[in-house]
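Late entry, evening session. Most of the bench is empty. Finally got around to the prediction I had been postponing all week. Sequence below, unchanged from the version circulated by S.P.
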Amino acid sequence: MDRNSIIGFSLLALLLIGYISYNQYSQNKFLEQKQADSVANAKAHPKPKIDTVATKAQMAAAVADTLNDSIRAAMPPALRSTAVQKVKLENKDLALEISTKGAYPVSAQLKKYQTSGNQPLYLFNGEGNELSAVLPYNNNATATADLYYTATEGNAPNGDRTLTMSGDLGNGKSVQIIYTLPAEGYMIGYKMILNGMPTAALNLDWKTSAQHTEKDITTERTNSQVYYRYADKEHDYFSFINKDKETLDKPVHWVGFRLQYFSTALIADKESFSKATVGGNAKPADSSIVATSRNTFTMPLSNTAQQTVDLRWYIGPNHYTTLRSYKIDLDDMVPLGYGIMAFVKYVNKWLIIPIFNVLNGFIGNYGIIIILMTLIIRLLLSFFTYKSYLSSAKMRVLKPELDELRAQYGADQQKFSMEQMKLYRTAGVNPLGGCLPTLLQLPILVAMYYFFPASIELRQEKFLWANDLSTYDSIVSWSGNIPLVSSVLGNHISLFTILMTASSLFLALYNKNMTPQDPNNPMMKWMPYIFPFLLFGVFNKMAAALTFYYFASNMISILQQFIIQKYIINEKAIHAQIQENKNKPAAPSKWAQKLEEIQKTQAERMKQTPRKK
């Protein structure tokens, strides 16, 4: 490098160093001036202090929200927590609210009915009501009740309203729950379609908390039961008295939760439930809830990519004709006779209900219907009534001769009984002639005992002073607890029950001189007067329709007995006929012969038995 080059590079280096030094000096001056201006501006315009702790919390929350949004966005739609809505599905008779979380009804209003307090009637409403299935999802299990759904409303080709609840679980897995509601009625179609989650069986959990709707919650809870029908058509019921659940040992067609006047039932439409456990509680702490029911089912499925569960769901009244129309024995939930009196349900089904329905077709007043039913039934039973009164008249005619026999044989009861039977046989009198007709009338009386309290048609129907024929009519009531009285009568006194008791006593007094009394059995002498008072404690809490029926029946019986004995039965003619029979060769009945043999055997045994000293 020559001299000129060295001088040139040296000058350039000096210029570069000078430029850098000047630029650094200018930058420092600029920053000092800007800082001075900022301080002056801060003094002129002071800013509020910043809470560094709150700022950090907000920043952390913002970061968490961002992360949650990211996680949520990555989750399948059915597992994302979204705002829960209630979608309404209703027809002429029923209004359901179905939640987008869980896709099950959370309330069911029966639009034609009201509570005893004249409020809209909900069979169930709010928490404690759920229908859920356990799904096999990603080697784990998730419940349909925990999923979130999108709702799509529509109409079926036949005019039924539909609601499709769709839950997307991602990767080709999904669940659809489709509700179908006809234009009227209480039977709902329920279909669950599973995609991409094949399983051999599906477990279902059905919970219901039934609302208090009637006047007397104690009666409601007593009538709360679970009914079920097996696949082989045998049916039974389960009460919540001794235990809270029961496992059914064979395939089940349907299970129903029955209240006093309303029911809900889950029906396996195509394939029966392979297993079921039924149960509940009729003593919940919440006084607005009558009873709770929890039932679990196992539904067998075909092991395919798409699987379907077909059910029907009844939510409606215990109306016998309506339930019977479905032809799957749902009408068995109307208690027309059970236990040792189960046979009377056939009397109700084949006699009482047809008569009631015919009268109900053209008469609007149910009190008049009850009176007409009483007249018709008494007319149908008039033959047996006549036979009973005729037998009593024969016994009265024979009373003087029986008194002579009793005086003749004194304390020898065995000899008196033998001679008594001989007298009956020669006179042609059957000592059981008055009992058998009465026994034949007993099924009618018992059938009515079940029919009236179970008839929803009588619910909130007025007659005379009774505001509701389906429950007791109280003319006197009190709020406090009266020892013994309240436990027997409740906190009221029913006027129809008083009239029923008074008419029963009058009938007993009227029959006193009409029926021969056995002096050796004083209990039978007083029982007709004690029995009405015993019944008063039982019937005071019963439906006014029932006690009114028994009162009307008693009054018609008194009138009927008066007419028969006054204008139809001639005791003088009966006496003449008995004397004529005595002169005829006796033709003892097999029953009389058997009874006489028993009495002879007993007499011989008494002679052979040594007396204790």
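Two things to note before I forget:
The longest strand covers residues 289-300.
The longest helix spans residues 3-44.
Will write this up properly tomorrow.
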